[in-house]
Amino acid sequence: MANIKSAKKRILVNRAKADRNKSIKSGVKTAIKKVYAAIDANNREEATAALANAISVMAKAEAKGVYHKNTVSRKVSRMTLAVNKLA
How is the chain split into domains, by residue range? Predict the structure, then answer.
């Protein structure tokens, strides 16, 4: 355990940021799962709505620095392709 006051504060701050990041990442994963669940169910309307929500959630995560912009771009691109392939 740290003895210096600033080191103790860093531990607390890092723990708070890790919890926040974990919550945001969990939300992103849930949004992505909803898109792919709709795709598996072959439901284009639901998939399109879930995709719009997922893009929004991922953009917010990117803005907060949780995900790198290229990671978000790659995931959005793959999901959009999958939704567009639905008949």
Answer: 43-87
C-alpha dihedral (75, 77, 36, 62), degrees to nearest 10: 40
- CA dist 11 and 8 (Å) reads 5
- Which residues have CB under 8 Å from 78's CB, separation 6+? none
User: CA 52 to CA 59: how far, in whole Å?
Assistant: 11
**28 band by pLDDT with thresholds 50, 70 and 90:** very high
- What is the phi/psi pair of residue 68, to 5°? -75, 150
